[in-house]
Design brief:
Oligomer: single chain
Number of strands: 0
Number of domains: 2
Shape: elongated
Structural class: mainly alpha
Helix content: over 70%
Order of helices and strands: HHHHHHHHH
Radius of gyration: 22 Å
């Protein structure tokens, strides 16, 4: 499926069972890798991943398979890893191996403190990179000059010797591709941003009373 490997097929054309099977094939190794980055144990990571997909199947009627599968799996996996590390941490209270205790505490703290945006940072970065690599060098250069170098459309047009309309067309094309390929992530990240904004507004209003 190429650059659209991060997307689940249109739910209107597939049954829930088919969408689940597609999600399983698409995300299993990613979820195992995510769990392993904290647990450092392959068997436990595979077990957590299986539990996450079991939770997905159990709650399949409540999950948006077109937009919310990966965020759901990441959230479930994170919570299960936290629970496992917490249990292990409790068992190690009387552990004499201070190095083992320290590593476990670091894993638990880093996982419990990580933000929703940071969870996806590597995935998002990889998808953005692949998306831009899929377009021609001229189109990619136009987009990067505008979005990373902060040149205006008029400045980009002069640098590349093209019309402003062509610059706008290329940027619009890249943005459309990025929106499509990042579809699984945007919903969750937007939810996180809105939640942070709500907290900020609440605190600000409380301070002004």
């Amino acid at each position: 499926m190429g650059l659209h490997d991060g997307n689940i097929s249109n739910g209107r054309n597939s049954s829930t069972g088919e969408l689940f099977e597609e999600a399983f094939k698409l995300y299993l190794h990613r979820i195992e890798h995510y769990a392993f980055s904290y647990l450092k144990n392959q068997e436990e990571s595979e077990s957590i991943a299986q539990e996450a997909f079991f939770a997905l199947w159990t709650n399949r009627e409540k999950v948006d398979f077109e937009n919310g599968v990966f965020p759901y799996l990441i959230t479930v996996t994170r919570n299960k890893c936290l629970n496992l590390l917490k249990r292990q941490n409790n068992r190690l209270k009387f552990e004499k191996d201070e190095v083992k205790k320290f590593k476990l505490e670091i894993n638990y703290t880093s996982l419990s403190d990580i933000s929703s945006v940071n969870i996806y940072s590597k995935e998002v970065e990889e998808i953005c990179h692949k998306t831009l690599e899929s377009v021609s060098d001229k189109v990619k250069t136009t987009f990067l000059l505008n979005r990373t170098k902060r040149f205006s459309n008029e400045e980009v047009a002069k640098i590349q010797g093209i019309s402003v309309k062509t610059v706008e067309s290329r940027i619009t094309f890249c943005l459309k591709l990025l929106r499509e390929n990042l579809k699984d992530y945007l919903v969750h990240i937007l939810g996180f941003i809105l939640n942070q904004l709500f907290i900020f507004c609440t605190v600000f209003l409380w301070m002004t009373i």
